[in-house]
Amino acid sequence: MTGVTLREDPAVERGVLAERLAAFDRRPHPLEAHKAAAVAVVVIGDPHPGEEAGVILTKRAPRMRAHPGQWALPGGRLDVGETAADAARRELHEELGLELGPESVLGLLDDYPTRSGYRMTPVVMWLDGGVGDLSPNPQEVASVHVATWEMLGVEPIFLTIPESDRPVIQLPMLGTRIHAPTAAVLYQFRELALHGRTTRMDGLEQPTWAWR
């Protein structure tokens, strides 16, 4: 995993985060013509020595048919009969070999309808005891990273584009700029986790190259 050493850990606590999620007035989005999907926002709350606290982030394999090489949270489409939480846990295991039980789920963030036709439901989970050894699926994952609390605390960049009246969000971290939908989810999560604020993300746009 890659990242930076924290100068000061804001020490997000499980109990506080769970309370904030329980009080969060989540904004669902009708499925309509979208396909239901879920992503795992996995909080490393008690890292092992040498590991970092923050959120697990991946870079998609370059040969994937959809969105190759993009920064992403582990996730994918819901199977028939699955809840968003079940799908996020399954995808986490399939992509990274990380198995978390139902008790790890703390709550859900707002749905984010993507330009490529998915209704993405972010599922916030808490990982106790550190990450340990992961087994990334090379067909889906090129690399695994940690978006540390320090990284998540950076000020986002908002750009205007002629194709939309919504601002395109960028999060500068890991030597690059991460875009929506991943940036939108991380931004809403950090606002709630670090600041206790409700900040909506349905007004945040993706770059045009991610619309396909």
How is this structure best described in words?
Strands 1, 2, 3, 4, 5, 6, 7 and 8 form an eight-stranded mixed beta sheet that branches. A three-stranded antiparallel beta sheet has the order 9-10-11, with helices on one face. 19% of the residues lie in helices and 31% in strands. With 212 residues, the chain is of the alpha+beta class. The chain starts with 13 loop residues before the first helix and ends in a 17-residue tail after the last helix. It has four helices and eleven strands.
Shape: globular
How many distinct helices?
Answer: 4
Q: Which structural category do the helix and sheet elements fall into?
A: alpha+beta
Total DSSP E strands: 11
Specify the biggest β-sheet.
Answer: 8 strands, mixed
Low-pLDDT windows of residues: 1-8
Give a topology summary.
Layout: H1 14-23, E1 35-44, E2 54-60, E3 71-72, E4 75-77, H2 84-96, E5 105-108, E6 112-113, E7 118-127, E8 141-148, H3 149-152, E9 157-161, E10 164-173, E11 176-179, H4 182-195
Parallel strand pairs: 1-7
Antiparallel strand pairs: 1-2, 1-4, 2-3, 2-8, 5-7, 6-7, 9-10, 10-11
Short recap of the structure:
This protein has 212 residues and is an alpha+beta fold.
Task: List the keywords.
212 residues; alpha+beta; eight-stranded mixed beta sheet; 4 helices; disordered N terminus
